[in-house]
Amino acid sequence: MVAAPDDSDDMIQYALKGTLKNLIDWGHEYLRTLSGKIGKAYDVRVEKGESTDDLIVLVDVIVPRFINHNEEPEAVDLMMETESLSKLGAYCNERNYDRVCRYLCSCSQYAADTEEMI
Fold first, then answer.
1. Measured on CA atoms in the order 23, 29, 30, 35, is the torsion positive or negative?
2. 40-76: buried (b, 16+ CB within 10 Å) or exposed (e) per residue?
3. CB 67 within 8 Å of CB 31
4. 18: which DSSP letter?
5. Closest CA to 45 of 80, 79, 9, 71
6. Which domain does 87 fall in, by range?
């Protein structure tokens, strides 16, 4: 068995062809690896001007699983990588908002200034 190259999106294509309902049953490590692949594929597609709608569908399936299993940092990272952080409020509740806010505050140190983006 030969491992796929790092830039391969086979994992994403298999996830999209399968039933998204059962995607979370594949396990924690699979979802973490898939979310990393989604982040890379999202960047490539944005650079090429291609649609990212199918990737966002996967994000919408993975993020609730991460949030419900106390993996807020992974959920926030995936949402930041796919520019869907605006949806984060829907997943916050009194149980997890403190962890989410602390993680966002710690990430803010690494965010680019608007002056750097010009």
1. positive
2. ebbeebeeeeeebeebbebbebbbebbbeeebbbbbb
3. no
4. S
5. 9
6. 10-117
**Structural domain includes residue 49:** yes
Distances (CA, A) of 15 to 19, 24, 38, 46, 69: 8, 10, 11, 20, 20
Residue whose C-alpha is closest to residue 28's, from 92, 71, 60 = 71
Render pLDDT for 8-45 as a digit per residue (tens, 0 to 9).
789 999 988 887 778 888 888 999 999 999 999 999 99
User: In angstroms, what is the C-alpha Rg of the chain?
Assistant: 15
Q: What is the pTM of this model?
A: 0.85
Q: For Cα atoms 58, 64, 92, give the angle at the middle one, nearest 5 degrees.
A: 130
| Structural domain count of the chain | 1
Q: How many CB atoms lie within 10 A of CB 108?
A: 8
